Amino acid sequence: MMRTVSAAETAPTTHPWVVHTEGLRVRAGRHLAVDGLDLALGIGVHGLLGPNGAGKTTLMRALATVVKPAGGRLTLLGEQVDGRSDLRRVRRALGYLPQQFGFYPRFTVREFVEYMAWLKEMPKTAVPGAVQRAIDRVGLTAKANARMKTLSGGMLRRAGIAQAIVNDPEVLLLDEPTVGLDPEQRLDFREMLRDLSVDSCVLVSTHLVEDVVAACTDVVMINEGRLVYQGTPNDLTAQGGQGDAGDSPAERGYSALLRRHRAGAGR
Amino acid sequence: MSRILRIELRRSAAIGAVLILVLAGAVLLYAAPKRWAPGWMSLAMIQREYLVLLWPLALAAGAWQARREHRSNVAELFASTARPRAQRMVPALGAMGVAAACAYLAVAAVAAPWIIDTARYLPATAFVVVAVGALAMVAAAWLGLAVGRLLPSLITAPALAVAGIGLLMVIPAATRSREWLALVFSPMYGMGQYTDYQTVYGRVSAAQAVWLVALAAAAAVLLASGDWRTRVAALLPAVLGAGLAIMIIPRNDEFVSNPVDPVAQEQVCADGSPRVCVSRVHSGLLPEAAPLARQALEMLAKLPNPPTTVHEDTTTFYPDTSPPRQADVVLMSISVDKDGHLARKAEILPRMLFNAGADMSGCDDSWNLAVSRAAGYWLMGREPGPDYFQASPEENAEAAKLWQGLRSLPEQEAAARVGAVRRAALACEKLDGLLTASAR
Asked: How far is CA A197 from the centre of its chain?
């Protein structure tokens, strides 16, 4: 497969991290869901773990530039995200699958992905090819001309991933992408993540620890809006002992980290 | 962009809106084809009057489409994309605008075959009137989009439709003493036709177009707005447009209600002699009218100094205009039936021969129904009966008695007496007794 590489893509980056937060605070309603988070993410696939209410979705929304940070610093691709900056350049390089994926039900898969490509201000000539590649990549080729409203839950999730990756994003944010996928599709999805990890920064929020271990190069764990742990999957596995809750070494590592963090916070 | 517009045209409410609007428009027009069958200008104006329903429907279609954004929960996803909100709204504005305008033009196209054989006079003004109607539809669809976005509820569309009808009804009442104001703000006001020669002045259309463009622009700004400041800014084009439109429209002394197109009134004559002419707007009916007119002239030829020409009677009552009185011209009233052809053919001859072919419309009360009718029926060679004049049985009996009297006279004497009626009628003198007294 060949594609034209723009000058911007081959230019050396001037920023050390693709995603960088310092003391980031983000509100979800009146609640401060992300509260003083320091995080630095580079190229690779990062699994975002944490219990319900940990602030995963709020963090995703802030990184997707949907909500403005309430405090701290957020830098995406070297550009600071605050109320004043023009986010167009950053947004062109973003891919986002929200937890609740909204779509136009009367559009076909191809039309919706094409519409998203237009919203992402992709160059006109690149759109048809990119749309087809994105649809092929998520395995919806046979359903490309089906209306969105006729898709099953798993297919919708894949259509959601297709729109997120259509612009070959430098920052790809996937909030619970594996919900509704059957085991075979989840294996395909992990394969796709490994492909993407070569040249983009992917942040995958999930409850499924084994997805993270299988497909991610890096694990980020947060609780109550703060960073609990960042390391490799192997290191996560090593954190757990026989006494920790969980059916796999990785799950036991997760439980152990969470338990220790809670104990530390309670002190 | 054009690909996205095509997707929007296929997948938005555009196609459904076109179907509903065309169906509604066609039903309205064909429910009373007599109103617009006289010609292209009639069709253009009467269709504008049916904006009373089409305009609110376009509003509702826009509001319905706007709800998609809310219902499909895409705000989160779209908020992360680069394209500014204003640009994102362009395909939806385009699709609904194209749909509303095309639906309006399609309604005209559906009606056109009905009159294509009989309607001849197609002034540029007719296109202007249709174009302003299409513009009104675009403005309505866009306004619907903007309101539907601000109030994304299931009832917004139907409520807006009802409010739209209400607004169009209220505008003339609210501007009662300033009729020209109603003309600016209501795209349907003043479009009912009192005569087939009626037109819409260019300055009126220009003012309406300015206002509608301003309204559409305000709706587009409102739709694209992200905060309250831009929403308030949407008032600016509306206020400017309203002001400019009010400056353009003829008002106070300059204002003419139900204006007449003098070109439509001009007489167009049939080939051959004697000369028979009808107004330009009715020129398609010449082949039907000419034989009747020539028949009347032939009957009048029995009289001394008979008339030689027939013109259409282009009298209008609002405003009050009448053709010049000419002794050698007989006037013929033409009305158009619902099929676009000559209406009430049987009435035409009695009306032309009434007063022995003389026009007495400018005379005060010197005419005499019995004498006038008896003279006409003697010329036609038949007994007075039910006709256009709706004479009472007594009045008809009186005319019949005079007619009998004429019949019993030698042909020459009768012709002389009827000729005297004609002479008196042309001079606006009393007709009483002219058929019973000797003409010599």
From this structure: 12
CB-based contact, B82 to chain A, within 8 Å: yes
Distance set, CA B97 to CA A251, B67, B68, B224, B393 (Å): 56, 16, 17, 15, 61
Is the CB of residue B346 less than 8 Å away from at least one CB of chain A?
no
Which residues 87-106 of A have a C-beta within 8 angstroms of B? 87-89, 91-92, 94, 96, 98, 100-106
Residue A28 inside a domain? The answer is no
Chain B hits for A114, Cβ within 8 Å: 3-4, 7
Q: What is the reported pLDDT for B292?
A: 95
- Is beta strand A31-41 parallel, antiparallel or unpaired with respect to A171-175? unpaired
- Inside any domain, residue A44: no
Examine residue A114 and state whether it is found in any structural domain, yes or no: yes
CA dihedral B162, B164, B165, B168 (to 10 degrees): 160
| Predicted TM-score (pTM) of this structure | 0.91
Distance CA A170, CA A203 (A): 11
What is the SS3 assignment for A135-194? Answer: HHHCCCHHHCCCEHHHCCHHHHHHHHHHHHHCCCCCEEEEECCCCCCCHHHHHHHHHHHH
Torsion of CA B405, B426, B323, B395, to 10 degrees: -30
B15 lies within 8 A of chain A by CB: no
Asked whether the beta carbons of B4 and B15 are under 8 A apart, the reply is no
Tell me which chain A residues have a C-beta less than 8 angstroms from the C-beta of B10: 111
Which of B219, B256, B212 has the alpha carbon at shortest distance from B235?
B219
**Which tens digit of pLDDT belongs to each residue from B29-63?**
999 999 999 999 999 999 999 999 999 999 999 99
Structural domain of A107: 94-168
Query: pLDDT band at B111, cuts 50/70/90?
Result: very high
For B417, half-sphere exposure in the C-beta direction (CA atoms, 13 angstrom radius) is 25
β-bridge mates for residue A34, sequence order: A26
HSE of B403 in the Cβ direction (CA atoms, 13 Å)? 24
Mutation for testing the B interface, residue in A119, A147, A150, A163 having most B CBs under 10 Å:
A119
Task: Judge whether residue B8 has pLDDT over 60.
Answer: yes
- Domains in chain A, number: 1
Q: Using a CB-CB distance cutoff of 8 angstroms, which residues of chain B are in contact with residue A105? A: 72
Judge whether A104 lies within some domain: yes
Give the separation between CA A47 and CA A55, rounded to whole angstroms: 14
**How confident is the model over A83-130, as pLDDT tens digits?**
777 899 999 999 999 999 999 999 999 999 999 999 999 999 999 999
Beta strand pairing call for B329-332 and A71-76: unpaired
In chain B, where the domains are located: 2-262, 267-426
